Structure formats: C-alpha cells, structure tokens
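User: Show me a protein chain along with its predicted structure.
Assistant: Here is one chain, sequence first, then structure tokens.
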Amino acid sequence: MESCGGAHFMARRVADLGHEAKLISPQFVRPFVKSNKNDFVDAEAICEAASRPSMRFVKPRTEDQQ
C-alpha cells in the first residue's frame, strides 16, 4: 500500500485481521508510473515496486506515533 494520510490506520486494521501490511513511500513508487496518474496506474506501479527484492518498506505507525 502506498504510504499516505490514512495508510497507517488501514495497515493497523489489516494487521488486526491477521494479514501483513507493507507500506511503500510514494517517492519509491513514482519511478514505476508509466503514464498519466490514476488509480489503476498507481496500483500497477505499487505492485511493480513491491515485487522488487530491494524495495524498502515503511513501518506502519502506531496510534501513539500518529
């Protein structure tokens, strides 16, 4: 998931459901955007970035840290 305003909240909820949530900083997703920005293109870029073995992920913040 791209790290944005509500991403940390959503990552905590996803983790509560037993899944692993990984956040990617938007600056690391941007190089993978191939055309005009829209939700579909953003999703493709996030998937491409997340599949890279060297990708650095952002640790979701706790409620206290927000």
